[in-house]
Amino acid sequence: MRTNEPGMAGQDGISLAEAVVVLVMIAIVALATVPNLGEFNRSAALLGAAGRLKGLMFRCRAYAIMNQRSTGLVFEKRGDGSWRCYIAADGDGDGIQRRDLEGAIDPIVSEVLEFAPQTAGLGILKGEFVPDPSGRGRLRGDLDDPVRAGRGDIITFTPQGHATPSSVYLTDRRARMRVVRVYGGTGRVISLVWRSGWPRWRKTAL
Predict the structure, then answer these.
(1) Contact between residue 57 and residue 131 where contact means Cβ atoms under 8 Å apart
(2) Residue 180, helix vs strand vs coil
(3) What is the mean pLDDT of the chain?
(4) Phi and psi (nearest 5°) for 138?
């Protein structure tokens, strides 16, 4: 009758030593995967936030052209650091005004997008050399203000397809940023991406 040597696999299974080795290998793979999974999730969340904002800009421009009246993408910052934005239509022919929004003269014509302060959303990374998307050195201005759309934080699209020249910055709060830019003469909307260590922003289709 054949007997198994100590520490050797038998005909019906594996030894304890082999099982331990397998478990150690599984643990190593799992530990190596967790950081990558977290990075992927942050990247996907930032992409989703930028995509929703870009989609709302497209809708705002289309509404202005189809309805032949000025339409604005309005940004509002709350006391807790969160942001909200929505589309409003010019109700009295004098453009989108904060006082008209408060009086419901300029009606809201879209859903309201919410961006929480601790998740991927509107913001600019601090403590980093964030380049200016226009290629003019470092991004300047108030780094607590990610909406660069004039004093009113309203991006207005006209029936002729023009718009307020604007840049809206988003971040994953760790190492990545995206900017959604609006060109004034054409109302064209583009998206750029940047991550810590890159010397310049890169174009992206999404």
Answers:
(1) no
(2) strand
(3) 88
(4) -85, 145
